[in-house]
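Appendix B: complex inputs.
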Amino acid sequence: MTQQWRLASGGIVDRSHPLAFEYDGTRYEGYAGDTLASALLANGVHLVGRSFKYHRPRGIYSAGAEEPNALVQLGRGARGEPNTRATTLELHDGLIARSQNCWPSVRFDAGAIADRLSPLLPAGFYYKTFKWPPTPRWWLRYEHFIRRAAGMGRTANAPDPDRYEHQYAHCDVLVIGGGPAGLAAARVAANAGARVIVCQQSPRFGASFVGTDATIGEQRASDWSEECMAELAVHPDVALLSRTTAFGYYDGNLVGAVERVTDHLDRAPANLPRQRMWMIRAKAVVLASGTIERAIAYASNDLPGTFLAGAAAAYVTRYAVRVGTRAVVFTNNDAAYAAALALHGAGIAIAAVVDARAQSELAGALPARARAAGLPLLPASVIARAHGGLRVSRVDVVPRAGGAVRSFDCDLVAVSGGFSPAVHLFSQARGTLRYDESSASFLPDASPMPIVPAGAVNGRCSIAGAVGDGEAAAQAALAHAGIAVKPAASRVPKRSSSAGDDDRVSIEPLWAVAAAGRAKCFVDLQNDVTVRDIAIAGREGYQAVEHLKRYTTLGMGTDQGKTSNIIGLALMGEQLDVPIPRVGTTTFRPPYTPITLGALPGHAHGAHVEPTRRTSMHAWHAEQGARFVNAGLWKRPHSYPQAGESEDDAALREARNVRSNVGVVDVSTLGKIELAGRDVAEFLNRVYINRFDNLQVGRCRYGVMLREDGIVRDDGTTSRLDTTHYLMTTTTANAVAIMQTIERLLQIDWPDLDVYATSVTEQWAAAALSGPKSRQVLAALVDIDVGNDAFPFLGVRPCHVRTGAGSIPARLFRMSYSGELAYEIHVPADRGRAMWEAVLEAGKAFGLMPYGTEAMNTLRVEKGHVVIGSEIDGRTTAADLGMEKLVNPDKWCIGKPLLTRAALNAPDRWQLVGLAAARGERIPRGAKIIADPDHALPNPMLGHVTSWCFSPNLDASIALALISGGRSRHGETLWAVSPLADAKVQVTVRPAAFIDPSGERLRG
Amino acid sequence: MLLIPCPWCGPRNQIEFTYGGDASVRRPAPDAAVSREGPPRPTDQPPGGQRAERAWGDVTSVWVDYVYLRDNPCGPIDELWYHGAGCRSWLKVRRNTRTHDILGSAPPNQPIAAAETPRDGETGAGPNPHRQDAA
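Resulting structure:
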């Protein structure tokens, strides 16, 4: 028989819809509407886990997000999820969960030895013990065991197979919380015509009314909430988000929320994400987040069967579960009497209502009702100790004034130490808190942001008070949002006379009951922090509240001390004899409850972390089997291996073919910026180290840009297309940053210059045709004379590329990166592939081969050309790179003033050189350069290899390197060493250009 | 995430912008001397009051100040932002470094209009209208 603890009627569960689930290998049944916790309780399962430090048996403690104990391992494999709160986990068919932190089983747990050893494990024992002996080696040994012993569930080891979405939303009023205050606020805001979003953590709005006989005015509260929902549903500008937790408040009134879209379904529709993260930009926020009940610490207050009083009542009324047979209620306030009455109403015997307050304090309506119902009240008494093994079986009650101990047999203890407003988001909105003596709680005080607390979180605990407060909060929020407010008639009488509508909280603070001996009185159940631990921290000087937290771990973990923090800081206040407000609270950091990591990136994972940029010729490269490498966001072909050929061999073949015949490479990714205006020449003079004012129309020139501090930033060519029209190219990596700098210079520094800049990187596809036969290929391809006289080196011409399907307008540039006779052809991007195929067709007769970035790199290393990221590494000056002659002495440019610093002109600066190894030797990649490999350590480093390749044209391993005083070392023999690769190779220092140093090939 | 009021596009998410640093820093004139002229900048004043000579090798110039030295005020500061994912304009934004409040914005070479008194200003606390209602 299953669900033997389920009541015959009542609650939100759907008895016509049973659900099967598995917990710790046993199959159980629950109903739709259950949480895992309520379903387990309906089956009589109270013991659900072992505690973090002492491995003590623990049971379900709360009925909400504040749960410290009932954390379960959910699912299996890649979908395994640790530390899931059973109290908020909606039951679905086929759900699988396990208890955590226990071995071999939750009933018999070997780790429980820690409880016996607990005198050895006081607060801070970790810090005191594992620093000896004081060497990191010992810590590494300890760490292995500590990490195994600590921690709760296990994370999945496989990638998350689920899908997550992000949703931005904007609204006038965001209402956080779907209880009485939240619904009332939403209704007022919606009726005023505002755009409203309402977030509700649990599946149902107004769930707190279910099973209660609460009324609002003359109306039943559950009817009132249904009326509200129906009214809100017809507003087109109202979004009602259930299963949505507002977890953080950020700058500019941005609230982050996670909506659990399909977690509660056994089979999720394929079109829906698992969770959806909302980023809601609200003009004003109404925070109606309610309160969280807290406990009272007494000896063995952690035994399974111990509940927060409100939670015990919720299981009875909301989920129709009999959570015990015989209960003791322990309280310091009136609210627990409502819970006692609810338990009583469900047929649970009330052994005693133990109230810490004096008889004279028990004059409220609720104690009176309890008395009338015949519940045995024990005023001015406390529970001194609970007894039991895997479940509470008996409690000892003593009068506060002293006297005989009375024991009560029970299997349920319902505790209430008062209520803590859920001020987390208010505090994150820079809101200050004030300590309210009458309710013994921190209430919202003031925030500079438009966030308005309403209802219980604002100290308005009665339903009618919360509704009225919600309506008033909506008015304030509408004013923040700039929406005219009609003074609407409240649906609720301003002051109801009925007792339940009294906002005054009758409470007398009681945080802990002093315990004798070694008994443990738990403050923080999740982290096993006891009253004694707080005292130790205080004695040892960890008195500031943030120190207390770190030293004892109070308030850490998945629940962040929602039920315990204030107890710990109140006890610290008692110890230090300072009032609670002076102790203060720890910072309320987001997230409010743990959120799935997958929800944070949303779609932005894997290939979607950043955009992918493809050139017009990408598909062709892919069809040839090219492997792509990342160049910034671009994909560029590495090489084009032929059948049976390795990528490296392919790159060598491609590089050799450029020097002997002709090759073509896709260079569309280069940054391209068009500049137009009367003052472009002056502008270029200011941003490049070399002159551009004497550049003729139809010519291009290599230029180098510096940072403000004189270090080389970027290089590229700039062409003069017409008198006032230029095309600048930048490196692929820097294209965006250079464009941004140009905008900054033109908009801020030199608005007087008549220059317009437009990025055209994407508008043009480009191919570089390179090799001794490139002119012959070109002659067959374009409609202009490409002879050396008609189109000399560094010339620029408009032309047309002939293709089988008509001609393509193009820009032709004669420039060379490889060191060979070379041209670049730029065509409109949509004609890129047609141009590319036309080039290949025209080159067939000349042995043309496409080449990739690997061959391109080999060619430029052979030529001694520098590249950004390797030689231009953020530390080199133009002189370091051998380009000091480019720095025009007669004009100013960005970065030039600071180039005069002595350190940038020292003779021992690292300078660009070439390195050649003996035939058959290989210079190790990334090698360091030293003079003497046998030198005692540390061996002075002279420099390092910046670029490296095997040169197919020299048949040798060559490299570019930056070496201290490098240019005065030409001819020296040094060593390139890589201790990691255990390699050392003798190298000869030489000028960087290995091939055609005088540049005859590219001019010929 | 900040909500940055672009003078051209209106309030937009911070992710559309790139930070550009202190808006009051201006590049010295091209012919600015290498040796220091004028009074020391406030940042050169150590708490004791006596100005320590910084060791910058042979260069103690306005150029070094321009490239390397930045003020780090507590309170409002005018900063440059670039609306790269929007209108591609640079703009000037006044931000309170203590509260992260944005107090106004303008095109880069125009003054920021005296923004209405910020809700927070310097104190980090202001009245909560709702609390008055509750009182």
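The longest helix of chain A spans residues 463-480.
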